[in-house]
Amino acid sequence: MNEQAMRWDDLQVVLAVAHTGSLSGAGRRLRVSHATVFRRLQDLEKRLGVRLFERSRGGYAPTLAGEDLATVAGRVQQEVHGAERRIAGQDLRLSGTIRVTTTDTLFAGLLAPLFNDFREQYPHISLEVVISNQRYSLSRREADIAIRPTNHPPDTLVGRRVTDIAQAVYGQRAQWNAAASPVAPESLRSEHWVGPDAHMGYATLEHWMADKTTSYRMDSMLGMQMAAREGSGIAVLPCYLGDQDDVLVRLSDPIEALATPLWLLTHPDLRQVTRIRTFMDAIADSVRARTAAM
């Protein structure tokens, strides 16, 4: 075995292929092409003189040597990310980069203008915003801050409960202009509804809508909003989204069972970073002010 030049990049390739079972999956995780992953894996196996993965139509399965190296890579990754967080935690400057992950609905309906105000107030801080409904790992530094609606924030993160997101039923204003608001719940029950599908992962709303006639489903809250705007049915939407839409009208009082806490979360190692703390304070205050005015 040629033991020279075992690099962290090599270990990242092994770990990514072991976790995803494919070159394309590893490429997405490492943000490189699958051809690059293939070339780096071949080069590593040649230098080590050992096969790390068995190739088949089902994907890439680690050999005993591959499993051993992937385990080592996992431990090294934890140490590297831990060191990054601890070093970042010593940063007292109001400059640098903050990587924020949030949902498409929150960004479009609530956060976009608040982020713009923050950038104008702190021009030396760069924002990288990951708009996704997927969970990003703050421990692995995929993001520094998560802004998420959740009833159960992870125990491994710290932060604050900013507000409760109210939700209500909305319909196209042109269809409901003559109706008194709020509309009686029994009248709404027989209407056609736009609802979430299973891919949205919103079990609470699915359960609440179990007795409704739902013939149009979406995997996106913004999609539900657009469908309601077109008159395809009535939909439950966050009030910060529906109340701002002139094409829609609120048909119900806020639904108590669907109120969801909004959290700003970060990793414990980052909470004393000046730019992180400043961002969380500013956005928390802005969210509270904006939602209180709705």
Give an overview of the whole structure.
- The protein contains eleven helices and twelve strands.
- It folds into three domains: 8-87, Arc Repressor Mutant, subunit A; 96-158 and 263-292, D-Maltodextrin-Binding Protein, domain 2 (3-Layer(aba) Sandwich); 167-258, D-Maltodextrin-Binding Protein, domain 2 (3-Layer(aba) Sandwich), CATH 3.40.190.10.
- The longest helix has 25 residues, at 64-88.
- Helix 1 packs across helix 2 (23-30) and helix 2 crosses helix 3.
- Strand 3 (96-102), helix 5 and strand 4 (125-131) form a beta-alpha-beta unit.
- The chain is α/β, with parallel strands linked by helices and 294 residues long.
- It has helices spanning 8-20, 23-30, 34-48, 64-88, 104-121, 173-176, 185-189, 203-208, 221-229, 239-242, 274-292; strands spanning 53-56, 59-62, 96-102, 125-131, 145-149, 158-165, 167-172, 192-196, 213-218, 234-238, 248-250, 260-266.
- The mean pLDDT is 88.
- A five-stranded mixed β-sheet has the order 4-3-5-12-6, covered by helices on one side. Strands 9-8-10-7-11 form a five-stranded mixed β-sheet. Strands 1-2 form a two-stranded antiparallel ribbon.
- It is globular and about 75 Å long.
Brief overview:
The chain is of the alpha/beta class.
CATH architecture of the largest domain: 3-Layer(aba) Sandwich
Structural class: alpha/beta
Structural shape: globular
Q: What is the CA-based Rg, rounded?
A: 24 Å
The CATH topology annotation of the largest domain reads as: D-Maltodextrin-Binding Protein, domain 2
**Secondary-structure element pattern, one letter each:** HHHEEHEHEEEEHHEHEHEHEEH
Biggest β-sheet description: 5 strands, mixed
Total domains? 3
The CATH homologous superfamily of the largest domain corresponds to Periplasmic binding protein-like II
- State the low-pLDDT regions, or none: none
Q: What is the name of the CATH class of the largest domain?
A: Alpha Beta
Please report the total strand number as a whole number.
Answer: 12
**Arrangement of strands in the largest sheet:** 4-3-5-12-6
Helical run tally: 11
Q: What is the share of helical residues?
A: 40-55%
**What's the overall average pLDDT, rounded?**
88
Work out the strand percent: 15-25%
Cα separation of the termini:
67 Å
Keywords: DNA-binding, Transcription, Transcription regulation
Domain HTH lysR-type: 6-63
Pfam family, one: LysR_substrate
GO molecular function: DNA-binding transcription factor activity; sequence-specific DNA binding
